[in-house]
Every structure is written in C-alpha cells, then in structure tokens.
Design brief:
This protein is mainly alpha-helical and 136 residues long. The protein has two domains: 65 residues; 40 residues, no CATH class. It contains seven helices and three strands, in the order αβααβαβααα. The protein has a three-stranded parallel β-sheet with strand order 1-2-3. α4 links the parallel β2 and β3. The radius of gyration is 16 Å and the shape is globular.
Length: 136
C-alpha cells in the first residue's frame, strides 16, 4: 500500500523489546538505523539486534552513535566496540546537546527548536546521509 500511494520514505521507530515487530520492520526496510547511546547499557543490546537483523534477512544497517559526550574518548570507544560486534557505524554522531531534550520537551524537532544549533546540524547531516544511501 505504501508504494501504491507513492510514498518515498517511511520511518518506523520500533520498540526495543518487541522482537516480532522489529524483525518484520527490518525485513521490509531498505535501510535500518540503530541508535545506540555511547554507554555500556546500549552497547549490550547490540548482540540481540544482530540476531534480529539476521532473522530479517540481513538488511543494510548502520549504528548511529547518540548521546556521545563532546569531549573525551567515549565516541571513539563506542565506535570501536560497535565495529568489533560486526556493525557498520554511521559517520554522523549525535552528541550530548541540551537542544535534544529541550526540543523534545517542547514537542518540536531540534531543527525547529534551535535551527542554527549543532544538534540541528547533526540532524540534517543524518538525514542527508540516509537519503544518499537510499538513493544509491
């Protein structure tokens, strides 16, 4: 139905603990983005996601590092750990920026909340990366 209606892009934010829905969404996807915060709790979810993606037929997937501190080794350490688990890492990182929770609290996107801010810049970069992959 989506293709019949002429839809070009659909974003599905699946719940992290509903394997059947996540498998089906990944099976239908042209691209899967896995947001993972730069902390051990999120990294521990990746082996299960690897299994989900395998069950879905191994669609193209990238881990998007989120909530990475602007300073310190966390981004690089997270990137290394993710790659060590066999995932491709998105070149765009969403850093810990106050604009993300502030925008969410206000019910708007960061591009609306602070259009010229770094969080908005990172969001636009992720969108451009995604569209480039989908059009290649």
């Amino acid at each position: 139905m989506v293709k019949r209606e002429g839809t070009k892009l659909v974003v599905v934010d699946t719940p992290p603990n509903t394997a059947e829905a996540t498998i089906e969404a990944a099976r239908c996807a042209d691209l899967v983005l896995l947001p993972v915060a730069a902390d051990i709790n999120d990294l521990e979810t990746l082996p299960a996601m690897h299994n989900v993606l395998t069950l879905a037929g191994s669609p193209r997937a990238f881990v998007v590092i989120t909530r990475a501190p602007v300073q310190g080794p966390y981004e690089a350490e997270t990137r290394k750990a993710v790659q060590g688990m066999g995932f491709e890492v998105c070149p765009v990182v969403w850093h810990q920026r106050r604009a993300f929770p502030n925008a969410q609290a206000g019910g708007v996107a960061v591009t609306e909340y602070e259009p010229e801010g770094k969080a908005a810049e990172e969001s636009r970069a992720l969108f451009k990366f995604t569209i480039k992959l989908l059009n290649s």
